[in-house]
Each structure stands twice: as structure tokens, then as C-alpha cells.
Amino acid sequence: MTSQPPPQSDSAIVPDPGPADHRFRPGLDRIAAYRAGKPAPLGPGGRSFKLSSNENPYPPLPSVTRRLAEVLPASLARYPSIAAPEVTAALAERFEVAPENIVLGAGSVEVAAQLIHALTGPGDEVVFAWRSFEAYPILARVAGAVPVEVPLDADARHDLPAMAAAVTERTGVIFVCNPNNPTGTVVTRAELEAFMATVPERVLVVIDEAYVHFDRDPDSPSGIEFFRRYPNVVVLHTFSKAYGLAGLRIGYAIARPAVADELRKVALPFGVSRLAQEAAVGSLEAEAELGERIDELVRERARLFDGLLAAGLGPVPSQANFVWLPAGEESGRIAEAFERHGISARCFPGEGVRVTVGLSEENDAVLEAAAELVAAIV
Ligand SMILES: Cc1ncc(COP(=O)(O)O)c(C=O)c1O
């Protein structure tokens, strides 16, 4: 057998034959692929800070890295366990639920997809606030469902009465993103309770708590508490944010067994790697240590918020690991100023800019960029 020489130049690349002739699913042309946070540009002195994806800025815990190193040789050539008994048991113990209540996925975004696929079909509706997590409308459309976007209120908070009013015969799932991405706002316990009283029990309410560990508002609802009280509540959690495991892809739902069983049917087989499972167990064992990091990020959030407020950029009070600047038409200019300082933030043109809380040095850089912006205006 002769081996192929590597391509020498662009001319060796198979030419693009133009539009494909395949019969793609109707509607696919109206779906935009998920847009990930921008990588960080190179700023002054070669510094570069990626604050565009709400990731955790800390390196992995040494105990987690050690654990991964131990299982690495045995984990690469073998499929992971689909049942994932260790992490499932650890989560069940942590939240005082049964293992049957836990469903894992390759990140909570995959679990969100499972929920939509299990509960909606073509023409069914998925209700959520807007703006919220960008994956919701994409996942709904991919499932053939109809995304129903209910505008946030004037304070960038969920308008739960309007969301309740948007429920129809076709509604299968409602997402309540708490704290909300990208605004960092939260619903209150009383608001969620009033909402649950009006939502029909056949409709599943998913409380997406990707950022719950950063929430310090005493009026915020506990998703687990609502799960215990309402048969149609599912809680969505992730190891990507507070636990710093975004690169390993593991998230989970806590749901009634009858719902959990259906989710497992639509789950991606072997989606959660052995490494992700091990890191999750190790992180649950090291929660106290992780808690110190989370507290530090919450302190940094307050400092970032105060600085952005003092700079006149009108940040919205946040309970997550990011801060939202509802800058409207100025959003592009703010994001560009950040980029000149080596910072990538998430810009939603015409709406606002979301900047992730980083380490103190990263937040200093954001505040420097903000000060420069203000100086340019006055
Ligand atoms: C609100 C919300 N839910 C879910 C996710 C998905 O996170 P992951 O798939 O990494 O668990 C994100 C990620 O940004 C998010 O912002």
C-alpha cells in the first residue's frame, strides 16, 4: 500500500462544488449555527483575556487533575459508562434525590436538547424569555418546534406573567433561565410561585440554573425546592461554570423518573466521557474548595459592577458570573474598546454587551477600557 503524500498547496484541496444537491430537512436553511464566544484578541503588552463565554477563570483543582491523570490511560480506548453510576450517585446524594431523578448530558445544553426533543415535535412551542441563552431558539428549531420568545421587562428581567400568557395548547416546554444569561437578572420565589400556579401541569417548566452558584439574592427561588413541590418542574445544572469544567462537557437534569426515562431515550449515546464523569465526582468532593473560588468571583463581580457603574456604562445588577451592559446602539463601540485592551466580550449588536467576571487582573483590564471609553466621551 502506498501512502498519500500530504497536500502541497491549496491546489491539492478538493474544490468546493458549490451548493449541495441533497434534500436537507425543510427549515434547516432558517437555522443559524450556534455562535460561540469570540477568542480574545491580542492587547497591549501581549495580554489577552477571553471574557466572552462565561467560563471559569481558575485552573482546574489539583485534586481533580490528579484524578483525571489516574483514569486517563484506561479511559481513552473504552466507551464510557452510559449509566455513569458514580457521578449519578454523588449527585443524588448531594441533592437528596434518587439516582432515577438524574439525567446526564454532554453539557447542560445537550440536556436542554433532550428536554425539547422529548417534549415537542413539529409545530409544538417552546417558550422562553428573550433575550436569554442563545441555544434555546436553535434547539427548538432543530427539533422542528416553534420558539416563542417573550421579551424581558424594562429591568431586563423575566416577564413571568407574559410568559404564562404565552402558553397555548401547543406549548411543550418553558425555560426559566435563572439567573438569566446574558442579563444576570433573577426571578423571585414569589414570582415563580405565582407563575407555577398558572402553568398547566402537562407543560414542563425547566429552571435552567447554569449560574445558580453565583446567586446571592435571598429572594431567589431554589430550583430543587420547586422540583420537590411541582411535578412539572425540571432543574438544569452544569459543571461548566462554577465548577470550571466547560471543556469536559457534563451537565444534568433533576427530573421525575417518568420524565428522566424519556430524556434517556433521546440522549446522545456515550455523550458524557469517563473523564467528564470523574472530574464531576472529584469536583463534588471538593465543593468547599470550589466555593472559595466562587465567593471570590462574587466579590470581583461587585467590584466590576461598581467600576462599570462609576464609568457611566449602566451595568445591570447581576447574580451570575457576568455583567450585562444594555448599551443599545453603543454596544459595538464598547466591545471594540474592550478589544483594543485585549478583551473579548460578548456583543449583541444594538442590544448590549456581556462581559464575564474574570480574575482580578482581567477585571482591572475591563475597568481600564471602560475608563478610556468615558474619557473619549468627555
Ligand atoms: C443559561 C445557560 N444554560 C446552559 C448553558 C450550557 O452550558 P453547558 O452546556 O456548558 O453545560 C449555558 C452556557 O453558556 C447557559 O448560559
Query: What ligands can be seen in this structure?
Result: pyridoxal-5'-phosphate
Name the structural class. alpha/beta
**Extended strand count:** 12
Beta-strand share of residues: 5-15%
CATH fold-level topology of the largest domain: Aspartate Aminotransferase, domain 2
In the CATH scheme, the class of the largest domain would be: Alpha Beta
Architecture per CATH nomenclature, i.e. the level-2 architecture of the largest domain: 3-Layer(aba) Sandwich
Instruction: Give the total of domains.
Output: 2
H/E element order = EHHEHEHEHEHEHEEHHHEHEEEH
How do the strands of the widest beta sheet line up side by side? 2-8-7-6-5-3-4
Q: What percent of residues adopt helix (DSSP H or I)?
A: 25-40%
Report how far the terminal alpha carbons are from each other: 71 Å
- Rounded mean pLDDT is 94
If helices are DSSP runs of H or I spanning 4 or more residues, what is the number of helices?
Answer: 12
**Mind describing the biggest β-sheet?**
7 strands, mixed
